[in-house]
């Protein structure tokens, strides 16, 4: 049970774990310390609810392992020496300059995370592009969301999930691809259940594993891993053959239907069933259900994105929704559910492939706009996209990258093929790790450690899955001598003014105002010019685009920008843009969406005689990412203390493996020892291991990359099992 203690004051902020974006209130006691947390009843997103992680936030702020002061050492693995902030930042800046002078500007790379605040992404991006002078700057969101970004861009001409949670209230059919909401996004799941209590509609879940969402579904399609594009193409084959498509929508708003129609002739359910493993009649049934629904929506998470054809999977989902006229209307959408709290923020304001505000690196006009705004020459940063996170580690192996700055990301647990990553880390000439926790596994390899403040000690914005910009308020002072990431980036920029003199606003709101200015422009989707921190807080989040003109209209309608008035606007759904493309105009040159034919190529690592099992990985509800935070929370660990492997009882019986015995799992990359949990959740030739634990499933994963998004395949690996003699 959660101890209830006297709360003197409740402070509003936003939960910093997953991308749901729950509004949370932190309860402070007499002494100003955090004693508990609760959901904010007035917020649209969570309506007073929190999941276990949000409810246990109070334990986080005093958890062990927090960095208290900067540390340095000459060589990785030697004992650290405490140092001052000035010395640590001076050393880092000097090493970056030394490496770049010796090997070229692109020999240094920066990887951040989906857990920073948006103003921090923007500031770090400005420092890396405008002063350090490289495009080798990526977010760890390449491990989770890059395929969604790429798929949206290919279909609609721009990134940005077009739907929102409110679509659950309007849809007549929901299809979930590789998304296990009850464990990954419990409050989005609760929103879905709330909608179902008001009005029944069918839920179809596509997943090789019987997940908690699959248990709840009306129809579960346990497809062969990595064959989603075959299933969706086959559904579209049925829809076009039976004339169930939305002909008017296709004619008015899309290009490419004839090429798509030609390709889909090869995806008759009669033959497709042998590839995707779903019976032909079932394929026809769900195709008809989806196409005949007055509004139907698709959601997806890592089951689609973390694949060698993740981007193609997203394009197929978009094709399905375009041909059925399910984009931009209430209950009809293609909604990627993002992973980290601010995965959207990295997409919007910084990545190796784009410039702030969804401006394009390869577009001369966008490069000039950004460079002029910062007051530098656009030739300073190159027009070619930089290395994605997943390309940075191979580049370390080849010697192309010599130095690395990691911000709140833990590749020594999160990256696939860990034996290879470990070797790469050992080759770095210089590694700086900036993190809340000193004991994060990756810090074993660093030369400088910079202790960062935890989210509730900082101020700034998040964008959640439905494009809602939420505000995080600093409810606490930074712990010991840790500093907000925003402060660290600004201090570092002072050490690069010799390269380019750039103004960095000293306040977070100042940085936000720069972002508002950069986001302006006719027809831009990512327009946040009408937002201010005060408006966002009063409205409990605003969905972009929200232009100055929209804000002026809202203010005129209500009369003033006071909290109570914004609250009224929010309740009447007037604030911001719940959906994109409702007018049928897309971000392509001719304003029409692209129907892109996608042919399935089987490049998965499939089971064979030597490695007979499919290995899948995913989340459990108690933990977040690599457990840097939840691993320190008592009740999260009590409920999920150790890695385990789900195995089918019949397969286990054949190998003489008992429930709760230990086995060695072996792939072509490495091996790991785990405890077996026998369950019918997985089929006879399938295994599942949660990804949160160090030295476990990612010692086995292959990590082949999607050619468009550079996102790795975590979920389709071949492996074998050896029982361990317990005597
Ligand atoms: Fe936090 Fe996500 Fe849980 Fe909401 S669902 S409380 S955002 S972890």
What report would you give on this structure?
This protein is an alpha/beta fold and 727 residues long. The protein has 4 domains: 9-60, Phosphorylase Kinase, domain 1, CATH 3.30.200; 71-129 and 343-519, 3-Layer(aba) Sandwich (Rossmann fold), CATH 3.40.50.740; 146-337, Dimethylsulfoxide Reductase, domain 2 (3-Layer(aba) Sandwich); 613-723, Barwin-like endoglucanases. 34% of the residues lie in helices and 17% in strands. It has a 7-stranded mixed sheet with strand order 5-4-18-17-16-6-7, with helices on both faces. It has a 6-stranded mixed barrel with strand order 23-27-24-26-25-28. Strands 10-9-8-12-13 form a 5-stranded parallel sheet. A hairpin with a 5-residue loop joins strand 2 (23-28) and strand 3. The protein starts with 8 loop residues before the first strand and ends with a strand. The structure holds iron/sulfur cluster.
Instruction: Return the CATH class of the largest domain.
Output: Alpha Beta
Number of domains: 4
The biggest beta sheet reads: 7 strands, mixed
Task: Give the number of DSSP strands.
Answer: 28
Query: How many alpha or pi helices?
Result: 27
Beta-strand portion reads 15-25%
Strand line-up of the largest beta sheet: 5-4-18-17-16-6-7
Question: pLDDT under 50 segments (min length 5)?
Answer: none
Gross morphology: globular
